[in-house]
Amino acid sequence: MSQLDPLLFGEIDPPQRLLMGPGPVNAHPRVLRAMSADLLGQFDPEMTGYMNQVMALYRPVFGTGNRWTMLIDGTARAAIEASLVSLVEPGDRVLVLNFGRFGLLLTEILTRIGAVIETVDAPWGEVVPLDAVAAAIERSGPKLVACVHGDTSTTMAQPLDGLGALCRAAGALSYVDATATLGGMEIAADRWGVDVVTGGLQKCLGGPSGSAPITISDAAARHISARRHVERGIRRADIADGSGARIASNYFDLAMIMDYWSEKRLNHHTEATSMLYAARECARVALGEGLAARFARHAAAGRAMTAGLRAMGLTVFGDDAHRMTNVTGVFIPEGVDGERVRAAMRDHFEIEIGTAFGPLQGRIWRLGAMGYNAMKHKVLLTLGALEACLRMEGVTLPAGAAVAAALAAWEA
Ligand SMILES: Cc1ncc(COP(=O)(O)O)c(C=O)c1O
What we know:
Layout: E1 18-19, H1 29-35, H2 45-62, E2 68-73, H3 76-87, E3 93-98, H4 101-113, E4 116-121, H5 130-140, E5 144-148, E6 150-151, E7 156-157, H6 163-169, E8 173-177, H7 189-192, E9 196-198, E10 211-216, H8 218-225, H9 254-261, H10 273-289, H11 291-311, E11 327-331, H12 338-349, E12 351-352, E13 364-368, H13 376-392, H14 401-411
Parallel strand pairs: 1-12, 3-4, 3-5, 5-8, 8-9
Antiparallel strand pairs: 2-10, 6-7, 9-10, 11-13
Helix pairs in contact: 1-10, 2-10, 3-4, 10-11, 11-13, 11-14, 12-13, 13-14
């Protein structure tokens, strides 16, 4: 047997990076502590008690009274896929609001499901006007309307007031991916009147990736339960199958996952205990701070970041009226190698900023300030470091202007 590298036996000891990209971000220390708590059996009354607490804690986070508010084990994409595969059958018509990479992700998942997809598009850097959505709903008569709230690829936040009413009037269900905004910008599932909303921990909730909160309206839950086909090895006389088409994924079968989170405690997967502890603590931290205060903190961080970048003479990407508060896109100045600047930020300052995807790759950086990192000193450090790294690349900048402008904007 060949000799194993001694490095393999070293403890994990990552550098202290400050993660100021579009997510993941540094987790709140309370969340990391909660994750190290002892494990429990999945039907231990303490464990099922924690599951019920998670349901109660995430209702206010989603702005809902929905009974079905719980976690999907997996990254944010797991909850997106669970929602779409459980709501949509092959041949169903789905309308997708598409204004960035994550709108395209919805179409990608829906294509695999076999949906008939129509999109209503906006250029990257803009959002889809509600009247365009209304016209598209009227034209295509969808069973589901799906969209992203904050698309980190473009840093735009789609306004969602009125979307639910439009969908209901047309007899359509609605789905929203709020991965990047949950806990940082207001999510008002009930006021928006949307049926299913999903999130992730690794952005504004300040946790690690790997657990995806979800909320499901009663109307959507009825639709999903009608597709219930309990797997053979765990059938019970008190749980009847529905008459709808079987959901094409076992792991992401929301009907069985709802039965697992209900008092029936139907065994599905083994709940990811340490991730549930993390999700529970993320919600406790958010609600302890107060959601309004938290949204204001993210707004201050976004304002400060934007003002600082502009004071450096850089051009901020996208439509000011629909900017996410927690991620800001900025054009890489002419002649500057974006990847060299990112490497310098990392090597000299231990700060990570984000690159970009698709048509924006190599054109913009994305700077995030969210969750535990939406703090004044972290925004100021990032701006100061970026100024220094741009100077190293020979860019002439007004010295100290970014930090001064950010400080003023934070207080504004
Ligand atoms: C808006 C949005 N949706 C979905 C995802 C996918 O999340 P995950 O990587 O946790 O699966 C991301 C990740 O950046 C995102 O920003």
